[in-house]
Design goal:
By secondary structure, this protein is an alpha+beta fold. It contains 5 helices and 7 strands. The longest helix is centred in the first third of the chain and has 24 residues.
């Protein structure tokens, strides 16, 4: 591995960890309602805030209350085709900053609608095959799937301006 790739990964990992720490520490709304248990969790691995494909999972984190955790997706195709709920794919790149606060909004959507949608983050830098399969040309990009098939697409950069509320409204309308 080249020093440049190693440096990029170190910076990415540090940014992800700091972002997650800030989000966890600033979150004041750990809910007490337990999520519905279904078999899609069989495609989830360990807690992984820096994996290239992760699921934002609403669950009890080590007895501290319910909230969003990041779990590695061990079988992407199995997860998206076997999901009992619509799946929102959030395509991003660790090389671009999240100045718009998109991650925080997506986490809030994952918590608020945990019984209506499953959310998977995909790093297009590492997972170029998946990005190519879904014809992702810009980031951020959001795609809603049902049974593994594309139902809706929200291309964040093709819109001149968009707000987090517009993204939330689009998600709610897309998941039905």
């Amino acid at each position: 591995m080249s020093m440049r790739n190693s440096a990029f990964r170190a910076v990415r990992d540090a940014v992800v960890w700091v972002t997650m720490l800030v989000l966890v520490l600033s979150s004041s709304s750990c809910a007490t309602k337990a999520p519905a248990q279904t078999d899609y969790r069989g495609f989830l691995g360990e807690y992984a805030y820096n994996a290239s494909i992760t699921a934002m999972v609403y669950e009890d984190f080590e007895g501290e209350g319910y909230g969003i955790t990041y779990r590695a997706v061990t079988d992407f195709n199995g997860y998206i085709t076997g999901a009992p709920l619509p799946v929102l794919l959030y395509f991003y790149s660790f090389l671009r900053s999240d100045a718009a606060g998109t991650i925080a909004e997506i986490e809030q959507i994952a918590e608020d609608y945990n019984d209506r949608v499953l959310i998977v983050t995909v790093d297009v830098t590492t997972e170029s095959t998946i990005a190519s399969h879904y014809r992702v040309e810009t980031i951020p990009e959001f795609i809603v799937l049902r049974g593994g098939k594309v139902e809706a697409r929200f291309d964040g950069t093709s819109r001149v301006e968009w707000s987090q509320e517009e993204l939330r409204q689009w998600v709610v309308e897309s998941i039905g």
